[in-house]
């Protein structure tokens, strides 16, 4: 949104980004290269995704008022995806704000960006409010999903936390709310026929993940026992229980969905074998003697709990003893960082545009997958810029995932939201409200 072009030099080790001119911050000041350099430096030092790129940076400089030059010790094939990703990517703040924040969160009074809506107020547990930024300068291209021009049609937008799904649904039906997120699967078919709402099913799936503890415990380096666990499972049954109608899930073994450049069938024959007899044989070969395997899961995400419950029963049929440890989400986030506390934990992942954005490829993420094999392939994926070569490397990584089982993918799940019928121009891949208006 903020750059109009780029070029690479020195075999990909030098990246030159040309910025758009005339872009205004919400405080009325023009964005320049100095703001980008300060924001990129902070992101590279303290952002989880930023370190994947900036750890190899030898310098980042303003080489013109509207030009930024980043020099790397080695090429990075995912540099654009790392910068642009909405989840943990590079956010540009004014230079003085980015420089003074350091490793601390940005303060509310400093929520100053460049987008079509600007921050007004956050009242915890009540609402977040934004308003149209009259100084916004969209790009020239026609709006298309997350790309192109962004037009703000509303004076103000309020995001209101409503924990109960029934209240969210009835609120949209009654016209009290215009949009509601994360509606449960059991309501999908009835709401699809309800003229008082329009259903917004995402095209980009999320996928459940069961992380294995690669740092310590019964599953550490015991790839045969991990394969025994995976061999026992029927993923379709878990998806059906967790998400309901078939339109909301797909039992897909490829980490990336079909239709994307990263789709792969490598190793996927082991995705959902549901073979208890074979699982028992593998467990015996792994010297498993019935020791409880601690599975950490939260009820805050009902789908996580449903999937864990189904898998626990299926594993019992294969003679594998799983002990579910059910906690709230905040406790799970704390415990998953303590390797002595668990053997498997449950979460999910949103769609990622590049494999390097997958959490389990980060050796510091809980699970701590860092075998010599993945270390070598991870370096190969990072330092290769040719798309075909990177795809070939990803095929090898997915095959290794099914061999070493650092995580088990449950399957693709398609969440859905609901909106007032009066809204038009909605983005099917997320509740973003530029280019949205009323009929």
Structural class: alpha+beta
Distance between the termini: 27 Å
Mean pLDDT: 96
Q: In one word, what is the shape? A: globular
Helicity range: 25-40%
> Biggest sheet: strands, sense, closure?
6 strands, mixed
Question: Which blocks of ≥5 consecutive residues have pLDDT under 50?
Answer: none
* Percent of residues in beta strands: 15-25%
Strand order of the largest sheet: 11-15-10-14-12-13
Count helical runs.
13
Overall strand count: 18
> Which value, in Å, is the CA radius of gyration?
23 Å
Tag the structure with descriptive keywords.
single chain, 439 residues, alpha+beta, four-stranded antiparallel sheet, 13 helices
Describe the structure.
- Helix 7 packs antiparallel against helix 9 and helix 12 packs antiparallel against helix 13.
- This protein has 439 residues and is α+β, with helices and mostly antiparallel strands.
- It contains 13 helices and 18 strands.
- The two termini are 27 Å apart.
């Amino acid at each position: 949104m903020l750059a109009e072009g780029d070029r690479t030099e020195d075999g990909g080790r030098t990246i030159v980004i040309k910025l758009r001119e005339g872009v205004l911050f919400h405080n009325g000041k023009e964005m320049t290269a100095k703001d980008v350099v300060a924001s990129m430096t902070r992101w590279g030092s303290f952002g989880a995704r930023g370190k994947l790129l900036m750890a190899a940076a030898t310098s980042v400089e303003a080489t013109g008022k509207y030009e930024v030059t980043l020099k790397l010790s080695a090429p990075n094939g995912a540099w654009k995806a790392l910068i642009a990703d909405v989840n943990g990517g590079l956010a540009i703040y004014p230079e003085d704000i980015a420089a003074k924040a350091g490793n601390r969160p940005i303060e509310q009074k400093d929520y100053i960006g460049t987008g079509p809506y600007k921050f007004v107020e956050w009242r915890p547990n009540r609402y977040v409010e934004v308003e149209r930024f009259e100084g916004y300068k969209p790009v020239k291209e026609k709006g298309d999903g997350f790309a192109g021009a962004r037009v703000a049609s509303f004076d103000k937008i309020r995001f209101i936390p409503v924990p109960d799904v029934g209240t969210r649904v009835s609120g949209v039906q009654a016209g009290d709310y215009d949009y509601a997120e994360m509606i449960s699967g059991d309501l999908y078919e009835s709401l699809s026929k309800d003229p008082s709402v329009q259903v917004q099913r995402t095209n980009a799936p999320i996928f459940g993940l069961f992380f294995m503890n690669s740092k310590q415990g019964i599953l550490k380096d015991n790839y045969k026992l991990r394969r025994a666990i995976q061999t026992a499972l029927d993923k379709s049954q878990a998806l059906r229980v967790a998400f309901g109608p078939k339109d909301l899930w797909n039992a897909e073994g490829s980490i990336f969905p079909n239709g994307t450049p990263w789709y792969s069938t490598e190793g996927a024959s082991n995705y959902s074998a549901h073979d208890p007899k074979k699982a028992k044989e593998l467990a015996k070969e792994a010297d498993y003697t019935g020791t409880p395997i601690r599975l950490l899961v939260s009820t805050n995400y009902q789908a996580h709990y449903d999937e864990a419950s189904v898998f626990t029963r299926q594993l019992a049929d294969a003679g594998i003893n799983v002990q579910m440890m059910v906690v709230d989400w905040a406790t799970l986030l704390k415990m998953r960082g303590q390797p002595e506390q668990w053997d498997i934990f449950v979460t999910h992942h949103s769609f990622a545009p590049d494999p390097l954005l997958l959490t389990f490829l980060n050796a510091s993420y809980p699970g701590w997958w860092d075998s010599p094999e993945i270390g070598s392939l991870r370096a190969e994926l990072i330092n290769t810029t040719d798309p075909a070569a990177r795809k070939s490397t990803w095929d090898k990584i997915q095959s290794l995932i099914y061999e070493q089982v650092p995580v088990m993918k449950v399957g693709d799940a398609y969440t859905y939201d609901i909106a007032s019928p009066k809204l038009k121009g909605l983005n099917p891949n997320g509740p973003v409200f530029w280019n949205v208006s009323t009929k």
